[in-house]
Design brief:
Blueprint: E1 2-6, H1 12-23, H2 34-43, E2 47-53, E3 56-65, E4 70-78, H3 87-100, E5 107-109, H4 117-122
Parallel strand pairs: 4-5
Antiparallel strand pairs: 1-2, 2-3, 3-4
């Protein structure tokens, strides 16, 4: 049975391992130095949601914000063995609810690749055009 926890500090190395498994270890977000990286991210976040199967971390999503009316959904992550079971939708819906409860927020944004359009539509998002500028080579 999957349980969700809102803004409960996760085991940071476990979060790094989850991200590495789900995202293929991209951009150096795996290993023991994850604790410092994830601590810095979460300390600046509006909120985050984790999904657990008993005590095993199986999902994560982060909500950043601009300090005003815009929040941003980031790092929607589900362990490969738990994908396509509704865990991702559960994470996103709970993150959206937590953002709704934050006074003054009006918008929750998410950027995604085309193959995720149906997933985010199931979560209640409307597709919009957006721009992206790569800052690093």
């Amino acid at each position: 049975m999957i349980t969700y926890r809102v803004r409960e500090w996760p085991d940071l190395p476990e979060l790094g391992r989850l991200r590495s498994l789900a995202w293929g270890g991209t951009e150096g977000w795996s290993g023991t130095e994850d604790g410092l990286r994830w601590a810095a991210v979460l300390e600046r976040s509006l909120t985050w949601v984790t999904a657990h199967d008993t005590d095993t971390l199986v999902g994560f999503v982060n909500v950043a914000w601009d300090g005003g009316v815009h929040a941003f959904l980031l790092d929607t992550t589900v362990h490969p063995d738990w994908q396509r079971r509704g865990v991702g939708v559960g994470l996103v819906r709970r993150a959206a609810q937590a953002a709704r409860e934050h006074r003054g927020l009006e918008w929750l944004h998410v950027d995604y690749e085309p193959h995720l359009t149906d997933f985010y539509a199931a979560c209640g998002f409307t597709p919009t055009p957006a721009g992206l500028l790569r800052l690093a080579p």
